[in-house]
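Researcher: Structure prediction, please.
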Amino acid sequence: MKRFALVALLAAMLFGVASSASAGTELKVKGHLDVYGMWSANLMDHDTDVRDGDNYMTSQRMRTFFTYVANENLKAVLGFEIDNIWGNGPTADWGTDGKGNIEVKHAYLDFNFPDTDINVKAGLQYVALPGVFGNPVFEDDAAAIIVSAPINEAFALAVGYTRGADSSTSVGNSPLVDGVDKDNMDMAFLAAPVTLDGFGITPYFAYARIGENVNFAGQQGVTSNARFTLDDGADIWVLGAHATLTMFDPLTFAADLIYGEGKDDDFETKGWYAALAASYKFDVLTATLFTTYGSGAKDDDDKDRYLPTLAEGWGLTPYLGGVRAFGTTWDSFATDNLGVGSDGTGLWTIGLALDDISFVDNLSHKLVLAYARGTGSKETSLFTKEDHGFEIYLVNKYMIYENLAAINELGFFKGSSEVYDDLVGNDLDASYFATIGFQYKF
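Model: Predicted structure follows.
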């Protein structure tokens, strides 16, 4: 019966595609599938005395995006994600028929107003303020509407609005009571990209209002460092700029500078973040020197100096921010677990990345050396300005086919923490991991 239902569902999907095509709509499909095994030690806790499960797991992630194109001015996008850890739960054990494993990533309209270049994207979509290594304030999938348009060849404007929380909606038939209303969390932003010959800069401004009854515990990544109370509401604003310089190509530069404030009736935070990367493309590799700085905690009960963040997308490496060659179901292997979060605040970094290293056809390598140190003066985390960490990350990639790669990752991190040392009597132990698997992009 299960097989018959599957065949019927497949037939219905194919019939739907055929019907759409006959109606003049073109269907385009893209995505990727990662399948890999991971061996690790002290991956998340950095403590040899505490067991890390069985130190091995096999994981996979598939993302598929369908674009329904009516014409060059009108289309709709639908995206799904499926994450599995082999043997874990009913979706990846024997039978693999568990429910609730398919996540909707995107579902939005994308159209231009007739006879104009004004573009509108409305629905569940990817929303990002610009950044060299992702944006520490906002970069995530979100329910949003974004209107953008070129003003002339060098200047454009984009205006966006997104809602992050709304626990009570107008479709209910019960009157709202105290503690249920004012539960919305919203952000609006304005970006004005300027593109010149060999230089570009995008200044932007964002404002967020968090209602006094928003449940912070249920909101992923919301103001993880700014210690707002939950019953007073909060206002957040940030002013930033992202710039690129390419006129000296193959030597290029990219930079970020962000300042922001957040406050409620009892607490406020004011902080800033900066990033700089300089890259040079050689014949056999691309070398990038980089540094970032995010202000940290302050010794004050009602003030702090963190840059307020909402839904960050920042990341340098697997341990610093959580960026890897394979798709992953985790965030950072270090900064998140050491209490500074994975948004680039509360620490400064410096490092060297050697990318696209290739001496043999179809085989390439990437090597990253990174050093991080905390910037906080208050011992609210395991990683303050007295603490530091060093990471080595290596990626080896072999292209089996044009769209299929075999990938191997090797990662190592060793950090220090005076707070941890005082608590348990010894410092953080070294953490390391290795993966091998396949990545198919279609």
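Model: The longest helix spans residues 2-22.
Researcher: Thanks, that helps.
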